[in-house]
Amino acid sequence: MHVSLTPELEARVRQKVESGLYNNASEVIREALRFMETHEQLIYQMKLDALRRELAPGAAQAESGQFVSGGVRDILAEAKAIRHG
Fold it and tell me: Which residue of 62, 65, 71, 81 has the lowest C-beta tally within 10 Å?
């Protein structure tokens, strides 16, 4: 596999190797990909946690038998009516 990097990125990879932290450019790229995967997983988990927090009050209300009357269409129609006065 051949990877093209901008001169700036190539310099950063070279600096990492020259620092002694990595033996070669491949190690730098592998570590960067691992970091990216970890970052993506963290972002996914944060979004999932936020969604769960947002849904928790509604789930608690549903478990205690507190429901709104009507369906989703009724709720959307009511919201639209409020918005348009």
Answer: 65
Helices (H), strands (E): how many in the chain? 3, 0
**How confident is the model at residue 63, as a pLDDT?**
85
Q: Which two tokens stand for residue 27?
A: 């190690």
Contact 23, 17 (CB under 8 A): yes
The C-alpha atoms of residue 60 and residue 67 are separated, in whole angstroms, by 10
Structure-block tokens of residue 8: 């700036």
Position 1 scores a pLDDT of: 87
Residue 72 C-beta-side C-alpha neighbours within 13 Å? 0
